[in-house]
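This part of the workshop introduces the protein records we will be handling. As an example, a complete record with its sequence and its C-alpha cells follows.
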Amino acid sequence: MHIMPHPAALAATLLLATATAASAAPDPVAVALESHVRFLADDALEGRGIGTRGHEITARYIATHFAGLGLQPAGDGTGTDAWFQRINFAERRFTSAKETISYTRGADTKEWTNGAEVTLSPGNAEGTDTITAPIVFAGFGIYDERLGINDFAGLDLKGKIVVTLIGAHPGLDSEVGAHLGRTSKATAALKAGAIGLIQVRTFAEATRLPFAKSASRARMPVRGLLTPDGQPMGDGAGLQVRGVLDDGPAVALFQGAPMSFGQVLDAAVKGPVKGFDLAGTLTIRRAQSITRISSPNVLAMLPGSDRKLAGDYVLISGHSDHLGRKLDAAPGADDIFNGAMDNASGTATLLEVARAITKGKRPRRSILFLATTAEESGLLGADYFSRRPTMDLRRVVAAVNIDMPILSCNFGDVIAFGAQHSTMITSVAAAARAEKLSVSPDPQPEEAIFTRSDHYPLVRAGIPAVFLKTGGSDAKGGNSCIAVERDFRLNRYHEVNDDMSQAFDWDAAAKFTRVNTGIVRRIADARGVPLWYAGDYFGETFAPAAPKAKR
C-alpha cells in the first residue's frame, strides 16, 4: 500500500531538495574559468605561439570577450582591430652549418663552436657576417649612477667586445641585482661604446644551471622588437654580438691577464671585480636569416565613474602567448605546448576579472585591461607597450599582473611580488583578507621573480606594480600547495604536458579571480593612489619626481 505524504511534509521535502541542489550548484565564475582555459589550451590553437594562426585566434577571442562586456577598445588599430596594438618582431635564426668564436692571441688561435663550448645569438644583419674586435674585461659590467656603481670606470670599450661576469655584485638586493645584471647590462655596455657583450659564468651561475642545459638551446631562434620603421629596439638592441662562454674558453681568455679566470671567480664571490684589458681578439663567424613576425597586444578600457578620478587608470595584465610547437618532438609524439597553467589560467583570470568589474558598481577610476603577447620571448609585448603606449602612462597609477597561477590546489595564502615596494600592499592585504587568505613573503627572493614577468617593464616606466601568485599553504591549514607547485615546476613548466590532463581546482581558480578583482577595485575606488616607498630603489630610479610614502 502506497501512503501519500502530508502536503506540508511534501513541501518541506521539496524545499530541502531545492536548497541542496542550489548549494551544490557550481560557482559560475569557476565554470567560466574552466571554459576559457579549455578553449585557450586546446590543441587547435597549437600552443599560441606568436605570429601563428593559433595566437591570432586567441587575440580575437579575448577581444570578443571584452566587446561582449561593453568595454571600449584601447589599442591603436582601426575597425575590428581597434582592440589591438600590433607589434612587429624580428625572428632571427641561424642558417650557417655551425657558428664559431675564435680567440687569436699572437700566432695562437683557439676556436669554439656555438652549442658546445659557447652560446651565441644570431646577429641583426641578414646573411653571413664575420666580426673581429679587441676585448676588455669589465667585472660584472654594472653601471648605476644612483648606486654609485661604474664597472666601466677607467676602461675604453669603444669598438670592443666587453667580457663580463654573469649577474651582479654580491650583497645587492636580489631584485636590484637581477635588474642590473639581467636587463640593464647590455644597455650600459652599448652606451659605453661596446659592440658586443660576452659573459662568463660565476660559481653561483655554474651551480644554478649546467652549461650544457643552456648550450642545448643555443641555436634556437631569437626574437626581438622592431620599431614601426623596422629598426631593432629594446635593451642593448644595437649590440652586434651576444654570447656566453663555458669555463674552458674563459680560462683561455684570461691567460696572461692581470688576474686568471680562477682568481676572478674567487674575487667575484666577495664583491666587485675591477676590469682590465684582455690580450688578443675575438672573431665571430655566423650566418642568419631574419623573418618579420606580427603579433598583437589586446587592450580594453572601462571608463571610471568619478569625474575627477576617471583620468587615472588601474592596469591589469596577463600574457596570452605560449611556446607554440615543439620542433624536435619524436614522430607521433605530442608536440604542442598547450600552456594551460602558463598562461591560459592567467588569461582566463584576466577575462573574469573584467566580467566581475563590469557587473558591479562602476569603479571611480578607469580600468585598463592588457593581454600581452610575446611574454615567453622575453616580456616583449609588455616592453613594447611600456615604450610605445597607446595612452599616456603617466595616467596609470598602478599595475596588477597575472602570470601562471598554480590552480591545482585550494590555496590558503598568496604571494604578492613587488608589494614591498609601494603602498599597494594595503589593497593586496585587504583583498586577501576578504577571501580569508594571508599574504606571505617571497619564499625564493634569490629568484628575483619581481623582475621576470610583464609588470616589470611597467615598473621601469615608473608605475607601482604587484604580481600575485598562489602560495604554499592550503585552505585546511597545511602546506600541501608547496608540493603541488614544485611538481608543476619540475614536471610540467614549459613542457607539452602543461595541458588539460593535469588537475585543476576551479573553485580555487574562482577565489584567485576574486582576490585580483578585489585588488583592482580597491585601488580604483581609493581616495589616494598607490605610492612608491621613499628610498625604494625602483621608485627612486624610475619615478624620482613622484610623491613617495614613508615605509
